[in-house]
Specification:
37% helix, alpha/beta, five-stranded parallel sheet, 532 residues, seven-stranded mixed sheet
Length: 532
């Protein structure tokens, strides 16, 4: 039985630990924090001296990701261990998926059903519905191509997706052309849906990857079909329940979990080209392979170092955006909010230009809100709300001191909610609050320059590519997390952990994926029932 170390207990690391352990490898997972789950952490706040309520004034917040899509990734991970995700980690489907508020006072809900959404678009802005249908058709094709070329395998460049000599068939060439390489997300969307407000709504599929739709490659439009065909889900107990469920699964099948233990180095051999163990608390511990869920670039720079570390630093990977998160305990919930809401900026180009080109907070930002009490009353006292407010900001830049910048920008955010989302009295409703800044994110999660989503998916040609899950520079080293392939967002991060563990298992001649796990992760699993 091979011994495998997993560095970092974020969702990618936990997924990797579950899969590797299920396939017969002995896993030890290390995390520098006292909790497991990385950004999928939980925050409990008690409001001072407020009247009773079912939670006695207690509020519970998911601190990091709040939107779960593509649940078949979770199904496959649980199936690897012979477990049923729906039983161990139940999910609630949400529709409408988002409620959208615009600066001109208009509102529209993003619905799951494409035809229903197209009709709503035509009522909102006549002439856009048919374009939305054609956009979703293109999105479905991109989703299909992504499933074949990018997902469920280690990829670092175009040559990893296609064997050009073996696969230059007509259908393969057609799929390559359908990737629309050279076009951006924003260009594709506006080619189908010209209304500026509706285009801005669709732009925010890029929210999942922390990137600008004006710079991100067209292949990311496939997210539209992922969301329409596979839904948006709320895990019972919040997204924190995903981290807890994966940790419980890993431990139940024999993995050793060691929170509060930071890995500070790798035991490298053969001139730094092979990993033989990790260094934790001053002790060198031997392992046959290592999966790092630490930021991929920081893994190469800080743990591998040397020429390899310098090589990855010089590749020019750009950190994704960071953000300010406000956790607001409200004594009264807003009945006009959906579970997920976007309060859009007055000018999409102005907003993205500020964040990604100028490197400054947007003067009029888009705010994402999670208001979960309508779905899960346990998050707040009766009638209250555990309101999560996220505004994207630049990743950390020289000279920016968020301890000084936060008070003013907090007011910018609250004023935006008052003006655009019908929340004029929000300051009167706040009874307890906390905030997370880009500096906090950088220090808390060991990410590159405070980037929430790992590496930006920028570049109309090659922007979809990240460092591969199987290191080509260090034998026995594998990578998982938002800064590794296939990128950020809850399902992709967990898929990265699955890919890292699968690559390791293949390299070590392991048992491979079971038929049940293969089926659980297939798109067709929803449509094709198992044979009796």
């Amino acid at each position: 039985m091979s011994k495998v170390a997993v560095i970092g207990g974020g969702l990618g690391g936990l997924a990797a630990a579950c899969v590797a352990q299920a396939r017969g490898h002995q896993v030890t997972l290390f995390d520098k924090n006292d909790w497991l789950g990385g950004k999928a952490a939980v925050l409990h706040l008690d409001a001072p001296a407020t009247p009773g309520g079912r939670n006695g004034g207690a509020f519970r917040f998911d601190m990091g990701p709040t939107i779960l899509t593509v649940p078949r990734v979770l199904r496959r991970i649980f199936a690897e261990a012979g477990r049923e995700q729906a039983r161990d980690l139940p999910l609630i489907r949400l529709d409408p998926q988002w409620r959208c508020f615009f600066e001109d006072g208009t509102r529209i809900d993003l619905r799951e059903n494409v035809d229903e959404m197209a009709r709503a678009m035509d009522a909102f802005a006549p002439g856009n519905g048919e374009g939305y249908r054609s956009f979703q058709a293109a999105s479905e094709n991109l989703h299909r191509i992504s499933e074949g070329f990018f997902f469920w395998k280690s990829v670092e460049g175009l040559s990893d997706t296609i064997d050009f000599r073996a696969n230059m068939r007509a259908d393969t060439l057609k799929d390559v052309l359908a990737l629309r390489m050279g076009q951006t997300v924003a260009k594709v969307i506006r080619g189908h849906v010209p209304d500026a407000r509706l285009a801005q709504m669709l732009d925010h599929y890029c929210q999942y990857v922390g990137s600008s739709p004006y710079l991100a490659p067209a292949v990311l439009c496939g997210i539209g079909d992922m969301q329409a065909s596979e839904g948006i889900w709320y895990p019972v107990g919040g997204t924190r329940a995903v981290a807890e469920g994966l940790a419980k699964l890993a431990e139940s099948i024999g993995a050793e979990l060691r929170p509060g233990t930071e890995v500070t180095g790798l035991d490298l051999r053969d001139g730094g080209t092979r990993v033989a163990g990790v260094v934790a608390k001053g002790e060198t511990i031997p392992f046959d392979a290592v999966i790092s869920n630490m930021d991929a670039i920081r893994t190469y720079k800080e743990l591998v170092g040397g020429r390899t570390g310098r090589k990855y630093e010089k590749k020019g990977f750009e950190p994704a955006c960071s953000g300010v998160v406000l956790y607001l305990g409200l004594n009264r919930r807003y009945e006009h909010l959906a579970h997920h809401d976007f309060v859009f900026s007055r000018d999409a180009e102005e907003e993205f230009d500020a964040i990604y080109r100028k490197g400054i907070p947007a003067p009029d930002p888009t705010a994402y809100l999670a208001a979960p009490s309508g779905t899960d009353p346990s998050v707040a006292p009766d009638g209250g709300e555990a309101l999560y407010v996220l505004v994207h900001t630049p990743h950390l830049r020289p000279g920016q001191d968020w301890s000084k910048m936060l008070p003013q920008y907090r007011q910018v955010i609250l004023d935006k909610l008052k003006r655009t989302a019908g929340m004029e009295d929000i300051e009167e409703r706040i009874v307890v609050e906390r905030a997370l800044t880009p500096q906090d994110i950088h220090e808390r999660y060991k990410v590159l320059d405070g980037a929430i989503y790992g590496l930006a998916s920028h570049g109309a040609w090659m922007g979809a590519f990240k460092p591969g899950n199987r290191s080509s520079a260090v034998k026995g080293l594998y990578l998982a997390g938002g800064a590794a392939h296939p990128g950020p967002g809850m399902p992709m991060v967990m898929m990265s952990g699955w890919i890292a563990a699968d690559a390791l298992d293949r390299d070590m001649g392991g048992r491979g994926m079971s038929e049940a796990a293969e089926r659980a992760g297939m798109r067709e699993a929803l449509l094709a029932p198992a044979a009796e």
